[in-house]
Amino acid sequence: MKMDNEYFDLEDLKNAQKLSYKKRMQLLEDLNNFILKAMPEDAKKISSKLREAGF
């Protein structure tokens, strides 16, 4: 049962577990690529510095 302020629920997680490992990894890659394209350049620089610092 979804509440108005929730993005996913237990059923969503169960359905995601049914996907193959390859499909889950592809979905994560697609999401990451989308986020990188949508992210402003300043945010990309900050993200990169944080990643290099181990965060």
Apparent shape: elongated
Helix content percent band: over 70%
- Segments where pLDDT lies below 50 for 5+ residues? none
Classify the secondary structure makeup into a structural class. mainly alpha
3D architecture notes:
The chain is built from three helices and no strands. By secondary structure, the chain is mainly alpha-helical. The model has no long low-confidence stretch (mean pLDDT 88).
Give a topology summary.
Layout: H1 10-18, H2 21-38, H3 41-52
Briefly characterize the structure.
By secondary structure, the chain is an all-alpha fold.
Give descriptors for this structure.
71% helix; mainly alpha; single chain
